[in-house]
Amino acid sequence: MAEVILVTGGSRGIGRAVAILAAERGYDVAINYNSQAEAAEEVARLVRAKGRKVAVIKADVGKEEDVVRLFKEVDRQLGRLTALVNNAGIVDKSMRVEAMSGERLQRMFATNTVSAFLCAREAIRRMSKRHGGEGGAIVNVSSIAARVGGPGEFVDYAASKGALDSFTIGLAKEVGPDGIRVNAVRPGIIETDIHAATGDPGRVERIAPQVPLQRAGSAAETADVILWLLSPQSSYVTGALVDVSGGR
After folding, report:
1. What average pLDDT score do residues 117-142 get?
2. Neighbours of 75 (CB within 10 A)
3. Residue 213 half-sphere exposure, CB side, CA atoms within 13 Å?
4. Domains in the chain and their CATH numbers?
5. Closest CA to 63 of 39, 34, 35
6. Which residue, among 142, 146, 120, has the nearest Cα to 64 in the 3D structure?
7. How far, in Å, CA of 187 to CA of 151, rounded?
8. Which tens digit of pLDDT belongs to each residue from 159-206?
């Protein structure tokens, strides 16, 4: 029976790269999206072209009822979940903390942090040996911003990812005895369209020279690390925060 992976925010960027690479590695793939329907269907087409089953499921993973429905659809369309990539995330316009609205903060943490808790909860209920499962692996997509803090740009985003790091460490210890590994990747400057959301579309070109490797990373490079963390090759790795940042 094929391994089944759910990728939240799987329609573009790192999520897209993970979905495609997972199909190449033999996974059947559930692609979650919230608003980018056409992009999600294009990823699905690429997954099918690699001979794998695919489910495309719209859900706002910051909302509990949507998450419950999402996982039920994965069960129905693909079967037993074995891998979860909590990739869904947002960033907002660069600004200082004193200018941030409460609505922005609520939305940031709902999408970047609460969603990972909710999705992990549903995954554990299916994977955990104490619930009759056979184990599995979870990878949370954090950010190097959790370490550098994002001053003057997006301290809220950085804090939401810092919380995700703490969640990763604690959850790994909690569910390790249940046969579930939990890790995080922390990308640095990666060439995706998320930077346009900050109001600074030239951010990659501006910051890349400051990276020790003198360049930005790619979504594909990040996906390689994520798939390794999901694979048997990392069977003794859990609770790790893996920087994919070019040394930044």
Report:
1. 98
2. 15
3. 12
4. 4-244 (3.40.50.720)
5. 34
6. 120
7. 17
8. 999 999 999 999 999 999 999 999 999 999 898 877 666 667 788 888
For residue 217, which of 63, 140, 226, 111 has the smallest C-alpha distance? 226
Mapped onto helix, strand or coil, the DSSP state of residue 121 is helix
Mark whether 236 is an active-site residue: no
Helices (H) and strands (E) in the chain, counts: 9, 7
What is the rounded average pLDDT of the residues 117-145? 98
Record the tokens describing residue 197, joined without a space.
């959301």
Model confidence pLDDT, tens digit, residues 196-222: 666 677 888 888 888 999 999 999 999
Q: Mean pLDDT score of the chain, rounded to an integer?
A: 96
Please name every residue paired with 85 in a beta bridge, in sequence order, or none if there are none: 7, 139
Residue 202 has what pLDDT?
81
